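It would be a great kindness if you could assist me with a short task in structural biology. I am sending you one protein, given as its amino acid sequence and as whole-number tokens for its backbone shapes. I would ask you to consider whether the tokens describe a fold that such a sequence might reasonably adopt. The full record is reproduced below for your convenience.
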Amino acid sequence: MITTLDICSMDAAAMEGHPLLRPPSKPFIRGIIEGFYGAPWTQSQRRDLLRTLAQQGLNTYVYAPKDDVKHRKEWREKYGTEEAAELQSLIEYAKSLNINFVYALSPGIDIEYSRVKDISAVKAKLEQLKSIGCESFALLFDDIEYQLSDADESQFGTPANAQVAVVNDCYTQLNSPAHFYFCPTEYCSTRAKPTLLESDYLRTIGDRLHPGVEIFWTGALVVPESISEDNCRAVSMVLKRKPLIWDNIYANDYDTKRMFLGPFKGRGQSLKKECCGLLLNPNCQFDLNRPAILSYTEWFNAEEEGSDTDDSSMTTDPPSSRFVPGHSFERAMTKWMKELFLPFIPTRIRLAEVEFGSSGSSQLTTFSQATDSPNEGSSEMIMEEPKPNEEPMDRSPSCGSDISMADSGRFTTIIESSPLTIAQLCALADCYYLPFEHGQTANDILNGILWMYRHANVMAPGYIEEVRKRSVSGNSNGSDKNFEEIEKTRANWILQHQKITECIELISGAFRALCANKIHNPDLVQYASDAYGVLIVVEAVLGWIREGHLSELTEPRERRWTKPEYFGEPWHLSFSFVENIGYSMLPPSHLHSVLFGHRDVDPMTAILSIRGLRREDTPLLSPLRRTVADDDVDSIFSLETFVDKYYRPFLDWSEKHCFLAEEETKTGKIPVASVCGVLNIIEYHEHHNKLEADRMSGEGELPSPPAWMPAIPTEPAIGQFSSFFDLRVKDESDIPAAKRLIQTLAVVMAYNGAVGIYTCCLPSERDKVSLLLSLNFVELSSTHTDQILLGLRLVMPDVVVSEDEEESEQKEEDSEREIKEKSVDERGDKDDY
């Protein structure tokens, strides 16, 4: 049996001599596979992609959208006349550009291999595509169950034998086409059972599959951080041919809250010698894939390997023969930026619905606008006009995009936006870099937050005096810090705050420019909004710390964003920039995903800032008298009465837990939402009762708490949701500002000891209730039947565990640890296979 050590010691020449390993007689297969789950691309987008592939010197496009129902779910159904005509047009267009159009079918979801009717359906479907001009094909058996029916097992014995029979039969039926691809069920090392080198399934595929059929392989994992040459060599020995890499480095269908704009990375130049081709399965959102294609093309065209570290001191780009991911990233961003604004429109942030329609989106695509292509000026590079209201072909009704571009239609904000700069675009892309890695700007922000938390006490008023007192009294507890060092740390804290603010301003500038011209790339606006929205919270919390409100520290979490201490698929750990921001800002005991794991339904449409609410702000709060309730009960109060009831008590009791959200307008900032919180609602009520008792001075029985006092949850909820906040919103379009206020308050209260927060709503405040429910708030019981109390746990309650359960959990942990500590040779799921 071939061992791992044997594979590692084999050179390329020895492997080329393997009896069924064919010499590299075909051109390297390079291009794009539309193979993701989610809304398929439109026909105009695919044509645009084909032009881009031709411009970049790529040669292959594989049609395999998982949610084209006739590709997978209803694979037996032939395409209708109109559908077939669209595919035929696409095939002919690909031929005119010398692009190999590969049609893929995924029958494995429910095929019966021994059923003649099913095999005939597979052949008939491929023959239909052949009749309209398709010359290249693929059969995909990924993401399916191994289990065979009794009839299939009786005839074939194993899934590998059954799949090989179908593929070989179709390959022969189609007269052995020059390009025929097969995706096995075990398509990466971790899915090979028990290991890559010991898999009977893969060994059968390699032995029995026709040598003219190429086999897809994703690497050590479904989404590997890197693909090693050794892994490819091992696969080649097992499959008797070099693999065709299906590369998921840019795929985001497993988490559409993320996208990937970073450089093509973790694939060495020598990998090209160990595989027959590499196809990118990219971001679901079509217009976000331009940087990936540009970087991948540079990788393919390069001949030497370079590193960002080795070239950090270079003043000019490295030679084209050398691929350096960092330089490739910067060039891709520069080229892409030219396409994002054609032309640039200096306009207002908020747009009327009548200007671009209620969706605010556009079918315009920009892939074919590259100015650095070898075919620049060719008439074939002219962008086609999209068909009105075009929908993806055979889109499954269940596959709706989670990105909505609905516009509020509000006209209050008018901001003249500047053109997008390369620094702003790179900063935004750093927040959406690669599955296992953030870009430099994102890391600077995350690392800066961690450092500033760890040294937040130096910003507290009187900290130096307190240290001096302990030193003089001899009660320093071993902490004899030099006062100059403290001042130096304080100066460094302020400097770090300034650096993070500059990073945030870059991303804010990107959001502003993109939002003002969102018709060019609405998907990018949504992601820019997500990053900008959470950074509003960062600015507010750091400003709160700078004011000296965090003097007693809870040890912050350790870094997990520089290099995750795990290996596995990216969906095993929430690793998005937004969620890592939440992770870095909250104490270790608190649940970051509860507050920061939810995407805005619609992108933000305003430039916001959050700061502490002060007494001198109260004259500005008149617009907030109106709640989002239909009856506007609070609007009947005068401003003074309103302030006395809903603001002054909070400002008197806990001013550090009061915040104001302001929106930037052409004439200045205007308040749009506020939140006021108290850490302990019981103490707040007792304080009010004491004030009333002092005021009454024994003149009679104390009155019942006034109606405007916050309702208190009943037992046992009050023990878990003891922190209260009052939320005021100008109108429905300011709900995004309200979300950021809640997140800000929850973070600062968490560091002050809050374990759960709650608020009161009127039944008519539907938008407010919807917002809270979207943030995982739950309804609490209360004696006030005319109000809805909604609460959110910030810390999971302690669970009493029996000794047997504790012993069982310990055994599970020990077992998991043993699995993780197994050697790479035994497991076969690291880069070395």
Notes: The mean pLDDT is 81.
